[in-house]
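step 3/5: co-fold with magnesium ion
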Amino acid sequence: MMQFSFFKKTWIFDLDNTLHDAGYYIYPQINRLMTAYIVKYLEIDFEMATDLRQRYWEKYGATLIGLIKNHKIDPYHFLEETHNFTLSSKHIYSVTRLRHILRKIRGSKYIYSNAPYSYIKSVLRILRLSNLFLDVFSIENTKFNPKPSLRGFHTVLGKYRLNPARCVMVEDTLKNLHTAKLMGMKTIWVSPGVGKPSWVDARISHIGNLIK
Ligand SMILES: [Mg+2]
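step 4/5: write tokens
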């Protein structure tokens, strides 16, 4: 991370699979509940629902947006039912000393996630990060314009009149980083493995490497 000055930057962090690993427990829970929701309210079978969920996620950035646009479902009802699972410290996996790592970074910090607000707040509380962020942007806060939509990014930057040239976006999903890049932000891709697209400014294998 030597190429970045950490001084007086604005840091915009994604949550899931950026600050913690949602793959072991949380994503399976959400996927299960989303598929069940679609089966129940769209009255289609499990395989069709699984396929639909995946397609909407790819096309719209969030399954919910496809359901709003194509099936007029109530977003608040959907978010409540699909995030209705137990969440405690034993369900959240992250690097040790995450709070310490984030506190080392100078500048203002925000969360920008496509997840619902109450879920984001729960995860931050469990990770003991609640007071490190100036604000949290959820799917509701962006008026259901999730990443990677430009409109969502404009909502986030507009609220605090953030200058994208001073912002660093830290995120695991490339298409979301791509919008950030288009807007003029610096981009850090959280991804294990090797290599990165040339337009990504830096890649770290996990959030623990942010200050290395
Ligand atoms: Mg993510």
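step 5/5: annotate
The pocket of magnesium ion is lined by residues 14, 16-18, 172-173 (CB under 6 Å).
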